[in-house]
Amino acid sequence: MTTTQNLNGKVAFVTGGAQGIGLETVRGLAQLGAAVVIGTRDAKKGIEAAQQLKQEGFKVESIKIDVNVHEDNRAAYHYFIENYGKLDILINNAGILLDQESISSKPIYQTSTLPLKILRDSFETNFFAQVDLTQILLPLIRKSDAGRIVNLSTILGSLSLQADPNSPIYSLKIFAYNASKAAINAFTIHLAAELKETPIKVNSIHPGWARTQIGGGAADIDEAEGSRTSIMAATLPEDGPTGTFFYLENTLPW
C-alpha cells in the first residue's frame, strides 16, 4: 500500500494522543512534517508529551478534550478554526475496554451477565463520542485538499471473524468492546460512502495486538509498531482506498 511521506503543511489531530499507540502516532506523523495536536483528558500529561516531542524537534501542541463531552468537542473545533483554519487528518484513537482488564486477561463478565452500564459506557466512548467529534470537525476536514479520517477499530470488531468457529479470534468474546468497535466500523462504511465524491478518505484500522493498557503485556508488538497502520491510513495517496478495514497491507473482513 503506497503512502504519502511528506506531510509539510498538514495539520493532524490525534485523540488519546498522550500515551500508547496514540503518542507513537503523533510522533510518526510529526516525523513526516505534520503539525500535530494531541487530544487528551489529562491536560498535564498532554502538555508533558507535547513538550517532549518539541524537544525532539517536532511541531506538536496539546489540548484538553474529553471526547464524551460535546462541549469539549465543540471547543476543539474552535481551536482548529482559530489556529489553523482547517484540519487535514483526524485520528479517532481514544477508546476504552471495560469488559475486562486487558485483551489477554480473563473476562470479568460473559455476554449474558454483562451489566448494561458497561455496554452503554463502552458505546458512549468507543462509538457515540467518535461520531460526535467527527461530525463537528468534518467542516474543517472539508477545507483540506486531502482529508483523512482514521477510526481505530480492532480485528475483534469483525463480525465475520467473530462468527467463524475456525477464526483465530473466535474465542475472544468481549461483548461490549467488540460490539462498540463493530459499530465504529459501520460508521466508517456509511461516512466513506457519503464522502466518496470528495477528496476525504475514511477508513477503519486494526493496530495489531500491541502492548498497551488495553492489549496487555502478553501482546505481540510494541506501541510504535501498533501505530504503523494508523500512520498508513493517515497518509494514503489520492488513489488510496476509502471505506475499508485493514491492518498494514492486509484487508480485513467486516
Automatic annotation (TrEMBL):
PROSITE patterns under this entry? ADH_SHORT
Q: Which UniProt keywords apply?
A: NADP, Oxidoreductase
- Keyword check for NADP, yes or no: yes
Q: What GO terms are given for molecular function? A: oxidoreductase activity, acting on the CH-OH group of donors, NAD or NADP as acceptor
State the family named in the UniProt similarity comment for this chain: Belongs to the short-chain dehydrogenases/reductases (SDR) family.
Entries under PANTHER family matching the protein: (+)-NEOMENTHOL DEHYDROGENASE (PTHR43490), SHORT-CHAIN DEHYDROGENASE_REDUCTASE (PTHR43490:SF99)
Please identify the protein, giving its name as recorded: NAD(P)-dependent dehydrogenase (Short-subunit alcohol dehydrogenase family)
